[in-house]
Write a sequence for this structure.
DNA sequence: ATGGCGTATGGAATACGA
């Protein structure tokens, strides 16, 4: 029996404000699972009813007032829910679930890694230190997770690791998200955990690939000064099941858009 | 021109994003 599963990840920059385009996305793409970041919504105010009406009956959230917040919506039942706190900051930046795929549980981690502020120096910018500490804690913790099982790690990881993941490698070398200290640590986290960068399995390393375009550009599409901040990592046992990934760049041009586009991954086993 | 904007909070101006 063949089983097919579609998982999407999207930094939505306020789930309540963005409900019209979330519903549009769910209707058009019909992913089995959607992982949202930056929901900016206290748990008590989360729009459960609208999302259940859209066919996503299974919803796990880790939210807080004003900032951050993640949510995982699913057509399939979700079990083994875990919401881990990192850096003892009290931030809502992670939720993990199991979803049934091909007759066994598939672990799905949904992450929102700290942006890191403006100055790439932890001595003068504590937010940058927090970002590095967060990634180091991710690395240590994920080592303890069972990496010999099917698993996916998605989210806004706030690092664009490769030269063609940004519009200008040279101009962004000192800009938070693409500094060598971040990109090297990012690769260390990924490789230590045995994760595969699924998006780059389908796009050659010398081709540009972005998921985020600033609100500040007069014409984001014309300027096209993007970065790949959102990622889909898969464990090695799941590697052969990834059929394709895509960035729905169109969504950046929808009405009242997020500054991030959704990333979609297709699995078959 | 990588911040030129956008969002939450709270009810104006500030913090934060990346």
């Amino acid at each position: 029996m063949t089983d097919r599963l579609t998982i999407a990840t999207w930094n939505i920059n306020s789930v309540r404000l963005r409900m019209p385009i979330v519903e549009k996305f769910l209707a058009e793409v019909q992913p089995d699972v959607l992982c949202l970041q930056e929901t900016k919504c206290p748990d008590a105010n989360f729009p459960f009813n609208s999302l259940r009406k859209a066919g996503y009956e299974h919803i796990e959230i880790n939210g807080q007032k004003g900032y951050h917040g993640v949510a995982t919506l699913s057509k399939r039942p979700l079990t083994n829910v875990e919401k881990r706190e990192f850096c003892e900051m009290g931030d809502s930046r992670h939720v993990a679930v199991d979803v049934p795929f091909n007759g066994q549980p598939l672990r799905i981690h949904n992450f929102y890694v700290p942006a890191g502020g403006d100055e790439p120096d932890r001595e003068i910018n504590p937010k940058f230190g927090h970002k590095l500490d967060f990634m180091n804690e991710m690395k240590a913790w994920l080592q303890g997770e069972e990496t010999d099982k099917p698993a996916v790690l998605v989210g806004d990881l706030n690092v664009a690791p490769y030269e063609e993941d940004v519009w200008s490698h040279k101009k962004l070398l000192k800009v938070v998200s693409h500094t060598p200290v971040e990109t090297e640590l990012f690769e260390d986290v990924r490789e230590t955990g045995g994760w595969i960068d699924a998006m780059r399995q389908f796009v050659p390393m010398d081709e540009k690939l972005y998921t985020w375009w600033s609100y500040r550009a007069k014409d984001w599409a014309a300027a096209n000064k993007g970065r790949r901040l959102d990622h889909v990592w898969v464990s090695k046992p799941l590697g052969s099941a990834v059929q394709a990934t895509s960035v729905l760049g169109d969504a950046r041009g929808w009405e009242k858009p997020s500054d991030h586009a959704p990333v979609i991954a297709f699995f078959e086993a």
Remarks:
- Residues 13-14, 17, 38, 40, 65-67, 115-118, 127, 158, 167, 171-172, 175-177, 212, 214-218, 223, 225, 227, 229, 256, 259 of chain A lie near DNA strand B (CB under 10 Å from a C1').
